[in-house]
Structures are given as structure tokens and as C-alpha cells.
Write a structure and sequence with these properties.
By secondary structure, this protein is α/β, with parallel strands linked by helices. The protein folds into two domains: 231 residues, Aspartate Aminotransferase, domain 2; 122 residues, Aspartate Aminotransferase, domain 1 (Alpha-Beta Complex), CATH 3.90.1150. Helices cover 45% and strands 13% of the residues. α12 runs parallel beside α15. The protein is globular and about 60 Å long. The model has no long low-confidence stretch (mean pLDDT 97). Bound molecules: pyridoxal-5'-phosphate. The site of pyridoxal-5'-phosphate has 15 residues, from α5. Pyridoxal-5'-phosphate binds next to α5. It holds the Pfam family SHMT. One of its GO terms (cellular component) is cytosol.
Length: 421
């Protein structure tokens, strides 16, 4: 397999032992190298992180916490977890860090478990306005087990309506107020949310899954000084391994740790914990701070260029790594746009816009993000090209034209190689 020195000698072994799965690894690498990754929650983690994920740390059971494990032989993995915790606390200026959650959703289960009981009232961002499944979807544990009251954005400017949030908080007396979303392109006023939480005696929970990398890179304000608890994923802008993490004030440390283990997880994935430690070290470098600023600058250009192509950026643009684009002017819905872009090698997702007249399965919008392309080294000029490629893909259902665009995508991505030898 000389075309994939990136995977190293173990790949040769895998190819002999299990050619079916070896082929998937190769094809997925090729897919990531030759198509445009605009999914706002995706990124290319470093080879150092991939090395940790593919290591023998995966074999180790380590239920409990460093120095207090339920199994023997944890002396080596303890070192990795202590380093990860120390780096998280130092990078974010947090009083406490739990690095064990398997994912963002797992971290959120732990937050509910630490601060609420089933049936309690929680205020969270409405899903059609950008909230996450774990913020009260009817098909998620959060919507089934809790009394979720949703707040949303104002119709005029598509920004969070803090007056509505305050009114709902006073009326419903929630145990906890969640801020954070999966498709909100603007910044959140954490100071204002803190004031509302204090007024009604609610726990302030920030689900920072999407934007925590921008905080790590000091490109946007941090929720950590304000929030009781901040949960997030480590694989989005943060660019680490797939996983979750929780930061909190010292007074909540015990509740959080107990909620994660034994509350809802068994053994932590120690290979991922080591990967989180590596990513946190990378995030503390000046190069990562430049990256975080570039991610935002690129996304602004991408949103503006899509507007120049006749589409509309929700809330007037973006202040982060993602933009939500209302494509009703194109007369194509989100579902069809997503499919056409996919055929052209442009990977993005359909997304509901606030007050969307279409169903969630169809939608009137697309969501685009700049974390992965920025990691590749693309800049404003490439963002302009990408906007034009998207506009052309959305506008045609001609397979030949879509294939031609795919060729242009391939030429573009070839200039910004990832995981090359
Ligand atoms: C991505 C995301 C999650 C879930 O993370 P997973 O790792 O997919 O479980 C939770 N909350 C928000 C706001 C997210 O964007």
C-alpha cells in the first residue's frame, strides 16, 4: 500500500488480515483528501492525536479517576489523564475539568445528572432555532425525562431574544439554563445569561461544543468565568479526538465527577483521553490562536461570498466558524442543495433556518463551516471559490455539470493536501 505511507506499517498488517476494512480506511482517507469538508462540526485532527487513538491505551480499563481506580495497572494511563486535566484547567482558566465523557452528548447527560432530577424544568435553545438534540428533543432523553422550556431567536434579526429568555426564566423557574447551539452563527452574551441565572437561582450551563475551539484560540470571549458548568466536544473547532469534556466551578467538581462515573459511564476511553491531552497542548500554541482567528475570518468571507451569489446569511452573517444560509432565493430547498453539493464533492448539511416554512427533513437552508478547510491552509481566496462552486452546484441537476464541478473541487483540494506522506 505504498500510496498510504501516512497510515504506517500497521496498515500493511491490516490490509492482509482484513482487506474489507482496510479498503474503508483507504477510501475514507481519499474522500477526505479529495472533497471539501464544510460540515461545521468537523475538522482534521493531527497525526499526533491519531497516533494516540491507535495506541495500546485503548486496551486499558481505568474506571474511576487518577489515583482512585477500580483496576490495577493504571499507573501509566493516570499520567495521561492528569496531564489532560491540568492542560484543560490551564488553557481555559477553569477550576475543575473532567476529561472522560465519551462524546458531547455523554457530557450533557452527565450535566443533567449532576444538577437535575427527572421532571425538573430546564430552559434551552429551541431545536428549530439551532439547539442540539440534547437540549430537549422529543426523541432524546432530555425531551423525554425533563420539562424543557425552549427559547429562540427574534424574527427581525435572528439573534437570541434575551428579553424572552428572562421572561421565560422568571415564569418557569428552571433548575438550569442552557446556552449553546449547533447552528447559531453569532456570539452569546454570557454576562447577560449569568444575570438571568442569578435572578432566578438557576444553574448556568453552557454547551460550548461548537465554539469551544474558538475560545481555546482566544478568538471569541470565554463562557468559563460566568458559567457553573461548560460541556463540549473535543473534535469540532478544537481539532482533537472524538470525545467530550466538562469544565466547572470547584464547588461542582464532585457532582460532575460522580455524574460521569459511576453515574453514566463505565471505563473511560484512555486512548481518547491521551488524544485530548495532545490536542489541548496544540491549542495552547500561538499557531492555534492564529488558526482560530483565520477560521472566523474565512467563515465571514464564505458567508459574504454566498450572499454575493444571491443567498442570504441568517442573522446578517457570522461571528464564528459557521454560517447558516437561507437559500430560498435559489428556489432549491436544503435537501436538494445538500444532495447536489454532495455529488459535486462539496460536503455540507441541509439545515433549518429560524421560522423555516419547510419541514426539518427538507429545510430552506444549508449550514457551512470553515474549521476543516482552514486546517488545510485555505484562505479568503479559496472561500470565494468555494462559494461560487456551491452556487453552481445548487443551481444544476445535470450530472455532467456536477461532475465537472467535482473535478474543480478535486483540483482545489489537491493544492491543500492533508495527511500526505
Ligand atoms: C455536537 C454537539 C453535541 C454532541 O456531541 P456528540 O459528540 O455528537 O455527542 C452536543 N451539543 C452541541 C451544542 C453540539 O454542537
Amino acid at each position: 500500500m505504498s500510496q498510504t505511507p501516512f497510515y504506517g506499517p500497521d496498515f500493511e498488517l491490516l490490509s492482509q488480515q482484513d482487506p474489507d476494512i482496510a479498503k474503508v480506511l483507504l477510501s475514507e482517507l481519499k474522500r477526505q483528501q479529495t472533497t471539501l469538508q464544510l460540515i461545521a462540526s468537523e475538522n482534521f485532527t493531527s497525526r499526533a492525536v491519531l497516533a494516540a487513538l491507535g495506541s495500546t491505551l485503548s486496551n486499558k480499563y481505568a474506571e474511576g479517576y487518577p489515583g482512585k481506580r477500580y483496576y490495577g495497572g493504571c499507573e501509566e494511563v493516570d499520567v495521561a489523564e492528569v496531564i489532560a486535566i491540568d492542560r484543560a484547567k490551564s488553557l481555559f482558566g477553569a477550576e475543575h475539568a473532567n476529561v472522560q465523557p465519551h462524546s458531547g452528548a455523554s457530557a450533557n447527560v452527565a450535566v443533567y445528572a449532576a444538577f437535575t432530577k427527572p421532571g425538573d424544568t430546564v430552559l434551552a435553545m429551541s431545536l428549530p432555532h439551532g439547539g442540539h438534540l440534547t437540549h430537549g428533543s422529543k426523541v432524546n432523553f432530555s425531551g423525554k425525562w425533563f420539562n424543557i422550556v425552549s427559547y429562540g431567536v427574534r424574527q427581525e434579526d435572528e439573534l437570541i431574544d434575551y428579553d424572552e429568555l428572562r421572561d421565560l426564566a422568571i415564569k418557569n423557574k428552571p433548575k438550569m439554563i442552557c446556552s449553546g447551539a449547533t447552528a447559531y452563527p453569532s456570539l452569546i452574551d454570557f454576562k447577560k445569561v449569568r444575570e438571568i441565572c442569578d435572578e432566578v437561582g438557576a444553574i448556568m450551563w453552557v454547551d460550548a461544543a461548537h465554539f469551544i475551539g474558538l475560545v481555546a484560540g482566544k478568538a471569541i470571549p470565554s463562557p468559563v468565568p460566568y458559567a457553573d458548568v461548560v460541556s463540549f466536544t473535543t473534535h469540532k473547532v478544537l481539532r482533537g479526538p472524538r470525545g467530550g469534556m466538562i469544565l466547572s466551578k470547584a464547588e461542582h467538581a464532585q457532582a460532575i465527577d460522580k455524574a460521569v462515573f459511576p453515574g453514566m459511564q463505565g471505563g473511560p476511553i484512555m486512548s481518547a483521553v491521551a488524544g485530548k491531552a495532545i490536542a489541548l497542548k496544540e491549542c495552547a500554541e500561538p499557531a492555534y490562536q492564529r488558526y482560530a482567528k483565520d477560521v472566523i475570518a474565512n467563515c465571514k468571507v464564505l458567508a459574504k461570498s454566498l450572499e454575493d451569489e444571491g443567498m442570504r446569511a441568517v442573522s446578517g452573517g457570522t461571528e464564528t466558524h459557521l454560517a447558516l444560509i437561507d437559500i430560498r432565493n435559489t428556489k432549491v430547498n436544503g435537501k436538494v442543495a445538500d444532495e447536489r453539493c454532495g455529488l459535486a464533492g462539496i460536503v455540507l448539511n441541509k439545515n433549518a433556518i429560524p421560522f423555516d416554512p419547510e419541514s426539518p427533513a427538507v429545510t430552506s437552508g444549508i449550514r457551512v463551516g470553515s474549521p476543516a478547510t482552514t486546517t488545510q491552509g485555505m484562505g479568503p481566496n479559496e472561500m470565494k471559490s468555494i462559494a461560487s462552486l456551491i452556487a453552481r452546484a445548487i443551481a444544476t441537476d445535470d450530472q455532467k455539470k456536477l461532475s465537472a464541478i467535482r473535478g474543480e473541487v478535486q483540483a482545489l483540494t489537491a493544492r491543500f493536501p492533508i495527511y500526505s506522506a
